[in-house]
Amino acid sequence: MQLNSLTAISPIDGRYFETAKPLAHYFSEFALMRYRILVEVEYFISLCELPLEQLKSFPNDKFGVLRKIYQGFSEADAQQIKEIEKTTNHDVKAVEYFIKKEFDKLELSSFKEFIHFGLTSQDINNTATPLLLKEFLEKEFLPELHKLVSLLDSQVDQWKDIAMLARTHGQPASPTRLGKEIAVFSERIKRQIDLLKTIPNSAKFGGATGNFNAHHVAYPEIDWLNFGNNFVKKYLGLDRSHPTTQIEHYDNLAAVLDNLKRINTILVDYSRDVWHYVSVNYFKQKIKAGEIGSSAMPHKVNPIDFENAEGNLGLANALFEHLSAKLPISRLQRDLTDSTVLRNVGMPMAHTWVALKSLQKGISKLELNQAALDHDLEENWAVVAEAIQTILRKEGYPNPYEALKELTRKNEKITQQAIHHFIEGLEIKKELKEQLKKISPYNYVGI
Length: 447
Prior knowledge:
The chain is mainly alpha-helical. The protein folds into 3 domains: 17-117, Orthogonal Bundle (Fumarase C, Chain B, domain 1), CATH 1.10.275.10; 127-204 and 247-369, Fumarase/aspartase (Central domain) (Fumarase C, Chain A, domain 2); 380-437, Orthogonal Bundle (Ribonucleotide Reductase Protein R1, domain 1). It contains 19 helices and 6 strands. It has helices at residues 17-20, 24-27, 29-49, 63-71, 75-88, 91-105, 121-158, 178-196, 213-218, 224-235, 251-279, 304-326, 337-342, 346-364, 370-378, 385-394, 400-408, 416-424, 430-437, and strands at residues 163-168, 171-177, 202-203, 239-240, 283-285, 366-368. The strands form 3 sheets. The chain has a two-stranded antiparallel sheet with strand order 1-2. The longest helix is centred in the N-terminal third of the chain and has 38 residues, at 121-158.
């Protein structure tokens, strides 16, 4: 078998390949190679600009040419690296040798030993990975999430005046507005986005055990801590962690993953609520010609987009949870487990991405069924009991809660007529009776 969307084991690379394709620019092995080269090249340029004595003669007008090594990185280039790796059996060293070959082509061979100078592989991995994640979140994920939030906000505006029976513990409760209930999810997501933006994009950069040992022994007169901080911030746009072992702490990365997990949990909550509203006919779904809801039942129009989203969000969260719990733990100064699991950081992102697309599709198919909402309100006049007893309390009427409890807790349907009959029997002023009669499930919706 040849690997393609039909033979791929993961549905991300199979069934969902077209949907998840944009993530390949950030989380594929090709992408990781490109980001590694970016870090190596920018590191070399930063050494030239320091400058190191041996690099003072490097022609500055060649910096743009060097940057084209990663800016124009191709699949053919990536294949070259894979061929080199067959010999090195080390992915980062293969990247270093690839860049050195590019230096040879550019007739810059005399400078090539300062590629990867003093570094260990995790100086590259622990900068490339937070950089690719940062760029994915900023350029792809957050814009896509904002699209979803905009759809929710449109629903909030469209349905802001639509009265709806609320349910607590699954039972009829004080009415609300449909738009307000959607606003709850929109607000929750926005708050998590704000929190996400406060988490630093942390990177490790400091040599084999985090102490710039090799750098310091070669150039003891240079402030390598200041250099490292400047390089990571100025050239990569990240925050350098210090002190570290051979690897990044991953505490801030864990915070990012936990934050994304909370966003997904909110979206699971939303998906389940909309699923319920569809099941009770509050929403109908636009029908697309040719689509089939069930192989056996021709009438079915299922809320599959919200179910698909819920499933993918659950998968994503399981992976987010493992990554955030595992990555901050490493034996002594380093073991390989972080590198092994970190390669999978794109998987929960991809499942989340598929879920966002499913939710956008599902929301676009929803149509309000006003009659169903009104029917539920009409069938549940008992919910105005709270309003009546509260006003009676205000007016000093004796035991109003108990009086309404006796009226409504009979396992019998409470109608408008029953409520009004009860009001008429109260020993209160006529004006107050008229006030109470004006309360209905349709207008008792709060603010």
